[in-house]
Amino acid sequence: MLIESVQNPKVKRLRALQSRKGREESGEFLLEGRKVVAEAAKAGLPITLVLVREGEEGLFALAPKAAEAHTASARVIEAVSAAKTPQGIVAAARLPEPRLPERPEGLWLALDEVMDPGNVGTLIRTADAAGAAGVLLSENTADPFSPKVVRSAAGSLFHLPILRGELAGLVAAFREAGYTAAAGDLRGEDFYAAPPFPARTLIIVGNEARGPRETVLALCDRRVKLPMAGRAESLNVAVAGGILLYGAAFGTGVRRGPGES
């Protein structure tokens, strides 16, 4: 079946997933592009609908278990996608429902009111790259299943459990499970002079302008800051979070290459 009208109910269904209301009402979120669709399918997410641009039917192989699949005109794909250059495939998948593990392990990342979707997606991707076990999000952090976050995370959204809720309660639960909670805070100790982080560490980064809230900071065992050798006042939260994650995961010391002393 070739879908050519943007008024088609299936097209309207996908376009509605651009909004948080549409996602909450349907229980689905939008997948855009080859990598994102392929990673979602590999992760076993239930893909409920796929549209592939006419002439690129080979892309159906990226989601072979989709419940419903159709060819669509280029105009329809462009109408559904929020990307500047659509890659020829869009889809809907069921929103996952992860739960807090009874006994969490490893390194976790928490985002407290991080508002920019690009930052949220980049931080999820970086947490995945650093080997983190999962990500916690405060209720006011950007929706992890918005199209921009999904694109920015580049598939990592499907590799880690993403838990959203009242962050102070989540931090408290992790501390009860034996975690060290460490927040990025400009008033904290020098990150590079601080002692190593234990294996069970929760790294917390906060709002782009204000940092973590005081109610969250009050629950932290440690507060660390990145030194500023230049004249910049602060770092982008995604950059700072990446440095903290890698420092916690691999140690804050400089890693020397072979033959170096």
TrEMBL record:
GO terms for biological process: methylation; RNA processing. GO terms for molecular function: RNA binding; RNA methyltransferase activity. It comes from the Bacteria. The keyword Zinc-finger does not apply. Pfam families: MRM3-like_sub_bind (PF22435), SpoU_methylase (PF00588). One of its GO terms (cellular component) is cytoplasm. Belongs to the class IV-like SAM-binding methyltransferase superfamily. RNA methyltransferase TrmH family. Signal peptide: none annotated. Keywords: Methyltransferase, Transferase. This is RNA methyltransferase. Residues 30-99 form the RNA 2-O ribose methyltransferase substrate binding domain.
